[in-house]
User: Fold this.
Amino acid sequence: MSQEVRITSQTSIPLKPLVQSALRTEVRLLEIGLARTRERLRQFEQRYGISSEEFEKRFRSGELGDALDFIEWAGELELYRLLQAQREALLGAELR
Assistant:
C-alpha cells in the first residue's frame, strides 16, 4: 500500500532536510526502543527457559495462565512488533 504525505510551510527554510533529519532521529529512537525491548524479552526467556515464540504459543492457548509476568511478556512482544513495523515504515519512506 502506498501512502503520500504533503507538507507545506510559509517559511523560507528548506523543509526537506529538516524532515529527513527528523526521520533519521525517529529511526534511532525506535532502534533504542527495540534494543530495550529485546533485552526485556531476553530476560523473560532466561527466567522461564523458553523462547518468546514458544511463550506466545503457550500463552495464547491459555496453557500458562494470566500471571502478571506473562501479561507483561505478551505486552513486550506486542510492543516489539509495533516498534519494528514503525521502523520499517520510516526506513521505507521516500522523500521527493
Q: What stands out?
A: The first helix runs from residue 15 to 48. The chain has three helices and no strands.
